[in-house]
Amino acid sequence: MVLAFVVADMLLRAALIEKKSAAQWDASRWPSDHDVGGRPQVANKARSPVGTLKDGHSSGDNRAQAGQSPDLEPVAHSPLLQTSLWANIDPHPDCTPVIQSSAGPQSSETWCMRHFPSTTIIFRSKRLMTAFFGAFVYMTIIASFDGVLAQFAKRTFDFDSSRVGLVFLAISTPALFGTGYGALSDRYGPRKVGLAGFAVAAVGLALSALITHKSKAQLAGLCIVLVLIGIGAELILLPLSADMLYEADILEEENPDVFGEAGSYSKVYSLECAVTGLAVAAGPAWSGLMYEQTNWGITMLTLALICVLGSIPVFLFTGGQQKGAITLEEDGQA
User: Fold this and answer.
1) Closest CA to 278 of 141, 131, 140, 142
2) Would you say the pTM of this structure is higher than 0.70?
3) Contact call for residues 221 and 210 (beta carbons, < 8 A)
4) Per-residue pLDDT tens for 98-118?
5) How far is residue 287 CA from its own chain's centroid?
6) Cβ–Cβ contacts within 10 Å for residue 155, how many?
7) What is the rounded distance in angstroms from the CA atom of residue 22 to the CA atom of residue 79?
8) Mean pLDDT of all residues belonging to the chain
């Protein structure tokens, strides 16, 4: 049930249409020069059909004054002459009528691009999709420990609730040093720092599979690997979040008419929240199922495999060091 709500939330966020884009699409669908019946009208007002009144005199009278025969003049307001026959027979070849189709301008864009332009542009960015996947891996690791770490500590070390809470400090404490991880990302680039985070997290998860029985050495080893996993998880999230904002700026510059003055930050951040929400639901469900069906070691190895797979798109698509990034020395002088 929770997964259904999360998936529905992701679909609603993806289907969100920006106000400016919706106004442009609505204006292109309903042109202002259509009549009440929705039929296209002739946009060239310089054309004066024969038989109509202009400046108080009919065109037939004007021809009579010029010595021409006013007979056999068609009447433009006749319903029979407002068909395609009237459009094909033009007594004034030099005046080309401009016909606007009620179907709107023809375009080679896809249906998704016409109706959801900002979301389509975001989903086409491999760099943003990589950042979203990195956020999914990060939250999957953290949420998975929420589902199985308490049970493992109670079954293996006979811990009560207070001691289990102290064990969680090992994996959550590295988040306090987020500014240092961000400085590393500015100095070396999101790609290198992100890959280092995946490597550290994968090593910590693999080593945690060696914790199998109750002893002081095993307890100390569990705390150490949890600290490694916490550091690796933070090295995954922070650089990829920064890279996500860098790519959002580039998309705004390349598509100013789509994102408008509000920019793309809100849409990108909402999609990231939807991805992390999905990970919060999927992580404990997966780890809990694996822990009950197999054991602690196999559960940790599956999470390590997820880290290894997550590092592949980061290596391929995540950006490197930004040219305009502020170094620590410049930030301290400012």
Assistant:
1) 140
2) no
3) yes
4) 444 344 444 456 887 878 888
5) 28
6) 12
7) 37
8) 76
For the segment 3-24, what is each residue's pLDDT rounded down to a tens digit? 555 556 656 655 555 555 555 5
Q: 219: which 2 tokens?
A: 């307890």
Check: CB of residue 226 under 8 Å from CB of residue 208.
Answer: yes
Question: What is the share, in percent, of the chain residues with pLDDT greater than 90?
Answer: 49
Three-state SS sequence of the chain: CHHHHHHHHHHHHHCCCCHHHHHHHHHHHCCCCCCCCCCCCECCCCCCCCCCEECCEEHHHHHHHCCCCCCCCCCCCCHHHHCHHHHHCCCCCCCCCCECCCCCCCCCCCHHHHHCHHHHHHHHCHHHHHHHHHHHHHHHHHHHHHHHHHHHHHHHHCCCHHHHHHHHHHHHHHHHHHHHHHHHHHHHCHHHHHHHHHHHHHHHHHHHCCCCCCCHHHHHHHHHHHHHHHHHHHHHHHHHHHHHHHHHHHHHHHCHHHHCCCCCHHHHHHHHHHHHHHHHHHHHHHHHHHHHHCCHHHHHHHHHHHHHHHHHHHHHHCCCCCCCCCCHHHHHHC
CA distance 193 to 233: 11
Q: How far apart (Å, rounded) are the C-alpha atoms in residues 239 and 250?
A: 17
Helices 126-157 and 216-254 meet at what angle, rounded to 10?
160
